[in-house]
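Why do we care about 3D structure at all? Because function follows from shape, and shape follows, mostly, from sequence. That is the central idea of this module. The next example makes it concrete: a single protein chain, its amino acid sequence, and then its structure expressed as C-alpha cells.
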Amino acid sequence: MENEAAGSSPSHGMPAVDDLLAEVVELRLPAETGQIPLVRMLAQAVVARADYGLDAIADAKMAVDEACAQLVELADFGETMTCRFRVAPEGVAITVETTAGHARLPSDHSFGWHVLTTLAAAVSATSTPAPGSAGNTLSIHLELGPGTAR
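And the structure:
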C-alpha cells in the first residue's frame, strides 16, 4: 500500500500512469538579467507543447519573466538560476530558484508579485538552507492550470 501513495504500481514497483505522463524540463543558466529571454523562450515552447492557447502562452511567458527577474535581483553575483517546468495532466508547474547569502524573499506586496498572482493559478516563494553551503536557496513556484491561465 505504501507504493500506491508514492505514485507507484502496487504490483511491480513501476511508476503510476500519471508519473509516466508527467515530463520535466530543466534549464540552468547564470542568474543574470541577460539570460531571462532564454527562459521566456523555453516557457513559450513548453506551454505551447502542452496545448495551451495563445493568451495562456503569453501569460506564462510574462509570469516566468517576472519570477526570474525577482530572483536575479536577489541572487548573489556569479550564482546559477535553475528553471524547472513540469508538465502534467493537471497543468504546468514552474519552479525558478537560485542561491543567495541571505534568506530574503521577494515582497508579496510589490507590483511584480501582483503580476505573478494575476498570471498564475498559484504562486509561492520559499527560502531554505542551501545544501553544503552557508547560503540559502530562494525559490518561486508557479502553477498554471490545464490549458489556460487565470
